[in-house]
Amino acid sequence: MAYVPVPKDFSKIKTKLALNLTKRQIICFSLAGICGVPVYLLTKAGLGTDVAATLMIIVMLPFFFFAMYEKDGFPAEKILLHIIRQKFLRPGIRVYRSQNLYDRIIEYDKLEKEGAWLEKKAKEAREARNPFHFLKKADRKNKKQKTGLTKEEKKRLKELRMIKAENQKKRKPFTAQDTIPYKKIYKDGICRTDDNYYSKMVQFYDINYQLAQNDDKAAIFENYCEFLNSFDSSVEVQITFLNQQVNFDEYAKNIDIPEQDDCFNDIRKEYSDMLKMQLSKGNNGLVKTKYITFSIKADNLRNAKSRLERIEASVLNNFKVMGAMAEPLNGVERLKILHDVMNMDTKESFHFHYGMVAKTGLQTKDFIAPTGFDFRNDSYFRMGQTFGCVSYLQITSPELTDKLLADLLDLEENLIINMHLRPIDPKAAIKSLKSTLSNIQKMKIEEQKKAVRSGYDMDIIPTDISTYGEDVEGLLNEIQSRNEKLFELTFLLLNTADNKRKLDNIVYQTAGIAQKYNCNIRRLQYQQEQGLVASLPLGMNQTGIQRIMTTTSTAIFVPFTTQELFQGGEALYYGLNALSNNLIMVDRKRLKTPNGLILGTPGSGKSFATKKRNSQCFPDYRR
Which of 73, 143, 155, 464 has a C-alpha 20 to 30 A away from that of 239? Predict the structure, then answer.
């Protein structure tokens, strides 16, 4: 088990300007004095000193609150903004409502023609009233025929102008489709999430890391560190781990042996029942997939495509070095992932091709959106009939192990883990650390001056100042002398369940795993919608929660556990995976090397295992 040190959370270090107060506190206390003192002076004569002082304190309390209160790294005004946005500015319930693209075009064209006619008529009326307007000969004949707009026409023109202005504005999400934040997903898999942001997605497969020898683990870890360092500060990375339950009956069909016209159907049924019993021991009903999404900022699709293709080639090559298979995803495959995430309650199969957009007039969001969203609660949401909750991992441990992510992924429940990584430019990182170190040294000098004035030893200073100073110096030395980068890490967990009670139990179970490694799981308060958007593999993170990590401490979340072997078709049963306890069903003809070698000590059952392999071909002799 590998351990790596984790840098302290330097966001807790505040720059003190004067009187041991931060800039924020000085501003808020000044505003409190400006508002509170006049209230006291104006009401002292009429209400008395005690009442006036009480009123002054009441007026000043909000400013004191904004100056001192902070939760989860957010100041009071940001928390208030989250509450207002979630409760008042954005609708809580958003239902599925599709709108045909062709109907919208016809309606928009009709409104444009009507608005152009009214605008032209209004312009002619203004010109007719202009005393300096020189009419043409043809206009003089029709001057009496030109009249201004009627009252109804003026009202309609005003409505059309409002409709046009609303269409140009960024609309609030009133429907389930509006909640899905991307603009367009192209056929080649490029997704435009914002006007100038584009992303691409790669699926990678597992390798045997947890069961590997220590030397092999160290090699994989070093290669993964180099992989993370390959991203520059202009690329944002999202690593997604998707654990989803599938229909057990459908999954069991892969190991079901059909009956045949002979007298051995009892043997086939007994063998199938044995395989189903072994299947129920593991979590083969839980499909685990892993993806990496990288997004960049570009002026247009052409520039974004060329750069994303270069990044994709680098990503595929790095996974090849680590021994993991990887493949890029096209637009249909990305849409299928979004559909499966947002329609867990129905478990419907996804049927879509891009020809259906032109044929039906619907948008891609209409094929993947759930029946509705409900964001009225501050700590959970509903997606169709599914209850969901987004939490984040609060890293409080001084060191982390590579078992934390593996234990979270071993949960036999629906779980989506996302790690958003934003590399920080090395120059900017060094500048920021030097500034933080200067602030700590300034605070240390102030404490020493205070100690001398109070008459005790100047070496006695608060422990946090000394420990933070040492950590910043060590981190600065690592970045300057070793191949280390700084990353802004956001670690999100999306739990889903059929009902609220089960959801709370799953969240509690997840929090217990994190506490085993001295970390905490905190729910996103009043930010469940932003958390859901950040949990979709689109490369978007609007939660505002980041944790500064080094390359080594980020790479300790190694995305590999154990390689599963569960093939359909003419696969044979070879036992259970020693780590995940899942079935091993393999068709050796489909492997790179179909040869097999059975090793064991004398009497361990080598001959019996060989006979068992041969006997498996008998129940279904078509194999």
Answer: 73
Q: DSSP strand E in 265-410: where? A: 286-297, 326-328, 372-374, 381-383, 386-395, 399-401
> Among 500, 554, 475, which residue's Cα sits nearest to residue 237?
554
Quickly list H helices, 69-100: 76-84
Task: Give the end-to-end CA distance of the chain in Å, rounded to a whole number.
Answer: 42
Phi, psi angles (nearest 5°) of residue 174: -95, -15
36 vs 18, higher pLDDT: 36
Burial letters 304-318, b for 16+ CB under 10 A, else e: bbebbeebbeebbeb
pLDDT given at position 203: 95
CA 280 to chain centre: 31
Residue 298 has what DSSP assignment? -
Long-range pairs for 272-275: beta carbons < 8 A, 24 or more residues apart:
275/573, 275/583
Reported as a single tens digit per residue, the pLDDT across 528-556 is 999 999 999 999 999 989 999 999 999 99
| Residue carrying the six token digits 């569960």 | 566
Separation between Cα atoms, residue 36 and residue 348, nearest integer Å: 61
Give the torsion sign (CA, 536, 538, 539, 542): negative
Query: Which pLDDT score is estimated for 170?
Result: 52
pLDDT of residue 352: 92
* pLDDT reading at 249 higher than 70: no
Using one digit for the tens of pLDDT, what is the confidence trace for 299-321? 999 999 999 999 999 999 999 99
- Of the listed ranges 21-25, 291-295, 589-593, the one predicted with least confidence: 589-593
Instruction: Identify the helix (H) or strand (E) that includes residue 26.
Output: helix 23-47
> Do β-strands 236-245 and 286-297 pair in parallel, antiparallel, or remain unpaired?
antiparallel
Q: Give the model's pLDDT for residue 140.
A: 46
Express each pLDDT in 200-242 by its tens digit.
999 999 988 877 788 888 999 999 999 999 999 999 999 999 9
Q: CA–CA separation, 319 vs 322, rounded Å?
A: 5
Give residues with Cβ within 8 angstroms of 473, minimum separation 6: 437
Q: Is the pLDDT of residue 285 over 80?
A: no
Q: Among 546, 336, 515, which Cα is nearest to 432's?
A: 546
Phi, psi of 200 (to 5 degrees): -140, 160
3-class SS at 27? helix
Pick the closest to residue 486 from 7, 2, 3 (CA basis): 7
**Residues 201/328, Cβ–Cβ less than 8 Å:** yes
CA distance readout (Å), 510 to 382, 413, 496:
19, 10, 12
pLDDT in tens, 542-595: 998 999 999 999 999 999 988 777 776 677 778 777 777 777 888 877 777 788
What is the predicted pLDDT for the residue at 141? 46
Q: For residues 575 and 582, give the distance between their C-alpha atoms in angstroms, rounded to a whole number.
A: 8
**CA 248 to CA 254: how far, in whole Å?**
10
CA–CA distance, 227 with 39 (Å, rounded to integer): 61
With beta carbons less than 8 A apart as the criterion, state whether 60 and 36 touch.
yes
* pLDDT reading at 498 higher than 70: yes
Position of tokens 């409002």?
162
Q: Which two tokens stand for residue 142?
A: 């029709």
| Pairwise CA distance, residues 538 & 239, whole Å | 10
8 Å CB contact between 392 and 543: yes
**Is residue 16 pLDDT above 80, yes or no?**
no
Q: Which of 527, 525, 524, 493 lies closest to 510, judged by CA? A: 493
